[in-house]
């Protein structure tokens, strides 16, 4: 061969092994595409991915439950007596609220995960596969719901140990968890949109918490709004987080009214209906 | 699957006037491509030339603002789903889930394609063996070396044998031996009948791998042909002369320039001269003159122009892929 490159140091081919190194590729079976899978099958594969992540990165569970555990302990034992007369009474009030907060906060992580996947180019691979275009998001949701279940279960477990008792029993608790998953599903869209818009996962987190802190604190999660100034109270009373918390308290204590449940569902339903098309549009745009 | 026309023309990719703008910036400004089946086709250009955008359009990831293209006979605009059945793309950054193991990544993708879990696992294992990754199959991808990641990434593109494999800068960031390994893989893939369209900013890579090369710059195709044709396009060979005494370099350069009438390039080390030399008789006279004038030559040889020189001749700007040599020269001049 003639000298094609002036720079001799850039011609390592002279020192390379003969081309017989990997017979494996040549022997690789040619595989035609199988019958295309359905959307549900695709979504379940993404859900399976979320479970695998739990196995490989168990630390993420720590991220999910550490804040709510700290909140539960701090609020119950530091403020509880002063706020509700006794720590036991306060825990009874606070626990359904912290479940809502946990789920709402956790939905930030799916936005971060999405942003990471985009950054790594993983979504480009998914998008060149002949699969249902919303499957990656549906899968993300499956993973989210699992996260919500696990985190909610752990917080409830700790609550039970500390003396929390759901008056509505097992059935009420199951209904409350169904409500929690619905809330998480609805909130998830907000952060999927953020994850699609923002390039860096850290920014997604910062932005997410900037939105969530005021919304969760200016709610009835921690305290009864009765003592708040009028202008704040009027916000707290219509804050979707308050409505969700009220319905969850109702479900777990067995006193939920249909209107409470209906009001709590407004935000998740509206968010899903408005943001799902936005997500699809943004995804096609990227 | 492939339609009649393309079966006849035997083209894996056919693009006409592809344009893509981002705001005011035109990333791809009207590119035509014809890529025959089974060949390795390189899109060569500096950073920001529009290579990745071109690839993304053909892989249905970005829609063109103007122009049309078919991939394996399917229109990218009207039948992107069909295109996706016959392509695979390996992006510039390993498109893998770093938290999962290598095997899990492959199984996940195989299941997304629609294979049942048993078949998916079997295919994953086949690929792991073929790509010599069996030993690392159960390690998380974040613990892989750059070369292993690349191999896994390419393996992930072969779960279903694609008609066209798009590789965006397949060896960027790899060490020389890993690079060799990837090159070998690409050649074997092409030999097995997969059409490969790759982008690269390394002239050597295009030269080594590609059956055909399109040189693009500022979103336009400025040349296309085989490596040999591109070199012939500059119309001449290059004479390289090495001197025993580097102190004589200026005098020797003047003499060569006088005989051959073109600019003489000095190597960074300062002991070698290169000059375009089209005419055999004039070249012979120039070398003879050097010797009769008493310059001690340790070596002289004729070569085809390097792709660097071709690129320089085509774009009028120094090749962006050889920053070391260029910056060294710039430093020496400064």
UniProtKB/TrEMBL annotation, chain A:
Bilayer disposition of the protein: Multi-pass membrane protein
A Gene Ontology cellular-component term: ATP-binding cassette (ABC) transporter complex
Pfam families: ABC2_membrane (PF01061)
Subcellular localization(s) per the UniProt record: Cell inner membrane; Membrane
Top-level taxon of origin: Bacteria
Positions of transmembrane segments: 61-84, 90-109, 129-162, 174-197, 204-223, 261-283
GO molecular function: ABC-type transporter activity
Main localization (coarse): membrane
Entry annotated with the keyword Glycosyltransferase: no
Domain (ABC transmembrane type-2): residue spans on this chain: 59-286
Region Disordered, annotated ranges: 1-32
Keyword Transmembrane helix: yes
Keywords linked to the UniProt accession: Cell membrane, Membrane, Transmembrane, Transmembrane helix, Transport
Sections of the chain in a coiled coil: none
Family, similarity comment: Belongs to the ABC-2 integral membrane protein family.
Name of the molecule in the record: Transport permease protein
Organism this protein belongs to: Aquicoccus porphyridii
TrEMBL record, chain B:
This protein's record includes keyword Nucleotide-binding: yes
Main location: membrane
Pfam families in UniProt: ABC_tran, DrrA1-3_C
SMART domains registered for this protein in UniProt: AAA
GO aspect biological process, one term: doxorubicin transport
Family: Belongs to the ABC transporter superfamily. Drug exporter-1 (DrugE1) (TC 3.A.1.105) family.
The protein's name in its UniProt record: ATP-binding cassette domain-containing protein
Organism listed in the record: Aquicoccus porphyridii
């Amino acid at each position: 061969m003639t000298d094609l490159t002036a720079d001799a140091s850039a011609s390592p081919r002279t020192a390379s092994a003969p081309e017989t190194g990997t017979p494996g590729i040549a022997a690789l079976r040619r595989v035609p595409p199988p019958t295309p899978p359905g959307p549900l099958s695709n979504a379940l594969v993404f859900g399976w991915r979320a479970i695998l992540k739990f196995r490989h990165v168990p630390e993420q569970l720590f991220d999910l439950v550490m804040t709510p555990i700290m909140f539960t302990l701090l609020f119950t034992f530091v403020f509880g007596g002063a706020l509700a007369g006794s720590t036991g009474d306060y825990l009874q009030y606070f626990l359904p609220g912290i479940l809502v907060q946990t789920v709402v906060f956790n939905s930030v992580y799916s936005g971060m995960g999405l942003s990471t996947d985009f950054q790594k180019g993983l979504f480009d691979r998914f998008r060149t596969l002949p699969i249902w275009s919303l499957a990656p998001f549906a899968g993300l949701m499956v993973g989210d719901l699992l996260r919500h279940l696990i985190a909610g279960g752990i917080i409830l477990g700790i609550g039970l140990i500390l003396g929390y008792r759901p008056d509505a029993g097992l059935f009420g608790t199951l209904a409350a968890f169904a409500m929690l998953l619905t809330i998480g599903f609805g909130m998830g869209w907000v952060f999927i949109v953020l994850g699609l818009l923002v390039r860096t996962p850290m920014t997604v987190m910062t932005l997410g918490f900037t939105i969530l802190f005021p919304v969760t604190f200016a709610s009835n999660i921690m305290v009864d709004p009765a003592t708040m100034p009028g202008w704040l109270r009027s916000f707290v009373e219509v804050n979707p987080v308050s409505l969700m918390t009220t319905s969850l308290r109702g479900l777990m204590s067995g006193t939920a009214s249909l209107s409470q449940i209906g009001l709590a569902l407004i935000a998740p339903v509206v968010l899903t209906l408005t943001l799902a098309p936005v997500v699809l549009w943004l995804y096609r745009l990227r | 699957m492939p339609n009649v026309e393309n079966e006849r023309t035997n083209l894996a990719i056919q693009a006409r006037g592809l344009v893509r703008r981002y705001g005011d910036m035109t990333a791809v400004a009207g590119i035509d491509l014809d890529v025959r089946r089974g060949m390795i086709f390189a899109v060569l250009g500096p950073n920001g030339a529009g290579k990745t955008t071109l690839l993304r359009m053909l892989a249905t990831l970005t829609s063109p603002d103007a122009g049309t293209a078919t991939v394996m006979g399917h229109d990218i605009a009207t039948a992107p789903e069909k295109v996706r059945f016959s392509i695979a793309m390996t992006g510039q950054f390993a498109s893998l889930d770093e938290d999962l193991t290598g095997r899990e990544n492959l199984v996940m993708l195989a299941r997304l394609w629609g294979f049942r879990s048993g078949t998916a696992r079997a295919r994953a294992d086949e690929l792991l063996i073929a790509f010599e990754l069996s030993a690392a199959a159960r390690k998380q991808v974040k613990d892989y070396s750059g070369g292993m990641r690349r191999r896994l990434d390419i393996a992930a593109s072969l779960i279903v044998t694609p008609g066209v494999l798009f590789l965006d800068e397949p060896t960027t960031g790899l060490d020389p031996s890993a690079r060799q390994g990837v090159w070998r893989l690409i050649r074997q893939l092409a030999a097995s009948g997969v059409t490969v369209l790759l982008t690269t900013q390394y002239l050597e890579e295009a030269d080594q791998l590609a059956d055909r090369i399109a040189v693009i710059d500022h979103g336009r195709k400025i040349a296309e042909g085989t490596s040999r044709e591109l070199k012939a396009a500059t119309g001449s060979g290059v004479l390289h002369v090495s001197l025993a005494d580097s102190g004589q370099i200026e005098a020797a350069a003047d003499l060569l320039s006088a005989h051959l009438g073109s600019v003489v390039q000095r190597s960074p080390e300062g002991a070698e001269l290169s000059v375009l030399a089209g005419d055999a008789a004039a070249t012979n006279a120039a070398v003879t003159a050097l010797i009769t004038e008493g310059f001690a030559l340790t070596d002289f040889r004729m070569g085809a122009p390097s792709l660097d020189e071709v690129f320089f001749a085509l774009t009028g700007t120094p090749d962006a892929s050889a920053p070391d040599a260029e910056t060294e020269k710039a430093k020496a001049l400064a």
